[in-house]
Design goal:
The chain is mainly alpha-helical and 439 residues long. It has one domain (61-435). Helices cover 76% and strands 0% of the residues. It has 21 helices and no strands. The longest helix is centred in the middle third of the chain and has 35 residues, at 271-305. It is globular, with a radius of gyration of 22 Å.
């Protein structure tokens, strides 16, 4: 079978299955079964599919995923993270768009403790959005910062999606986790600058209100009690990776222990909260592991069918420069992100992008960070960005999807600026991992 026909068969069948509403993992499993029968030798191909499933899961590099998720779930379900956000609220002085600033700072802090973008947005939305709307904040200034900052959890470690991308794309997970810190903080800073600047120019977007006069002690004590220890957890987790003292798996385990100790110290660790955290972690982890099993076999079938090599040869024959091809990859991801979830984007593009990048000598670490940034942007890209619908779920019924789309657009523009900076100056993403003794 010609590679063009094989590619059309595999991708076309995948589109049909996803269009029928099958879950992502099962859509890929269906394509894999068809591909194994045609391209891997019938029954022998099905046996190979089972062996691939076992081999793809019995790898130590996947262990950080459930551990990072568990760390965030413990801090969320025990209420430790919510206390920290309340302490940040008290610590901030009178600034334009005060609650929007709180959402950016609190979201960035929670991003450094949770591997879940969706949980980050849901927590901030439930906690801050009703108060912001009640105080007369414009919907765009109330919802936009929450959705934008929620996506930072994909970049700042611990990031479960970064571990997944690193595993599937054979990029050093240690380096990928560390490389996300600077772009994530850059986004947080540009969001803060935008919020304060817009609200200073147009106070009607976020009407000021009397927050009462708190003494320096009343501001500092909650911050020292509830925020500084969480920063210490982040420093231990990330610092141990950066210094080369621990692998991502070991640092994730340290983070889980530290989160449990913190919850116990605040007298928030209950059996119910712990069981809920374990149950939610298991749900997400099983989903991710199913997806990994499907993805590895899909990549192999594409290679055996000749589709991967054929498409790469066709692209190289055009004679396009490395920069043009890189920008084309990012544009393809931006378009896909408007219509599908991030895991599906990884599974569809990695089998093509990584071999192409290796052939063109593109730095895989740089490419991995660019892919994560684009996938973060796609979380808020209309019409099907997942965070748009998370926000719709926590917002009052009077808030329309049109308003949510409008709230997201300015922040998408800011994220595109950061993406352009990382494309132009790759060292922004790659210098920090080079400081550590990474494996």
């Amino acid at each position: 079978m010609e590679w063009q026909l094989a590619l059309l068969l595999l991708l076309g069948t995948l589109v049909v299955f996803m269009g029928l509403g099958l879950p992502v993992a099962f859509a890929f499993f269906g394509v894999n079964i068809i591909g194994a029968l045609i391209f891997l030798g019938g029954e022998a191909g099905l046996n190979q599919l089972v062996r691939n499933a076992m081999a793809s899961l019995t790898t130590f590099s996947l262990a950080p995923i459930p551990l990072f998720l568990l760390m965030g779930e413990i801090l969320f379900h025990t209420g430790v993270a919510l206390r920290a956000i309340d302490a940040v609220d008290k610590a901030i002085a009178r600034v334009p768009g005060r609650l929007s600033v709180v959402s950016v700072l609190g979201g960035t802090m929670f991003s450094s403790l949770s591997g879940s973008t969706l949980a980050n947005t849901a927590v901030l939305g439930k906690l801050l959005l009703p108060d912001m709307l009640r105080r007369g904040y414009h919907p765009s200034m109330a919802m936009g910062p929450i959705m934008a900052t929620g996506g930072i959890a994909m970049l700042i470690p611990p990031s479960a999606l970064a571990v997944l991308l690193g595993s599937l794309a054979t990029i050093s997970i240690t380096k990928l986790l560390i490389a996300g810190i600077v772009p994530g903080l850059m986004m947080s800073v540009i969001f803060l600058a935008y919020v304060v600047g817009r609200c200073a120019l147009d106070p009607s977007l976020a009407p000021p209100y009397d927050v009462g006069r708190l003494s320096l002690r009343e501001r500092a004590v909650p911050f020292l009690i509830y925020v500084v220890p969480l920063f210490a957890i982040f420093a231990v987790v990330v610092g141990s990776i950066l210094a080369g003292w621990a692998t991502p798996t070991e640092s994730a385990a340290i983070g889980c222990v530290a989160a449990t100790i913190a919850a116990a110290a605040y007298r928030s660790l209950t059996l119910t909260a712990l069981l809920t955290a374990l149950r939610e972690t298991a749900k997400v982890s099983v989903m991710i592991l199913f997806i990994i099993v499907a993805s590895v076999t899909f990549s192999q079938i594409l290679a055996f069918s000749g589709a991967t090599n054929g498409l790469l040869a066709l692209i190289v024959s055009f004679g396009a420069t490395k920069t043009v091809i890189l920008v084309s990859m990012l544009l393809a991801l931006l378009i896909l992100g408007a219509f599908m979830d991030q895991v599906s984007m990884i599974m569809i593009t990695v089998p093509f992008f990584i071999p192409l990048a290796q052939q063109l000598d593109i730095d895989l670490l740089w490419l991995g960070i660019l892919m994560l940034i684009v996938m973060e942007i796609s979380f808020t890209t209309p019409p099907f960005g997942l965070l748009l619908y998370v926000m719709k779920g926590v917002a009052p019924p009077s808030i329309t999807l049109r308003q949510i789309y409008a709230a997201a657009l300015p922040f998408i523009g800011l994220e595109l600026i950061i993406l352009a900076l990382i494309v132009i100056f790759p060292a922004l993403a790659t210098w920090l991992p080079q400081l550590g003794a990474s494996p």
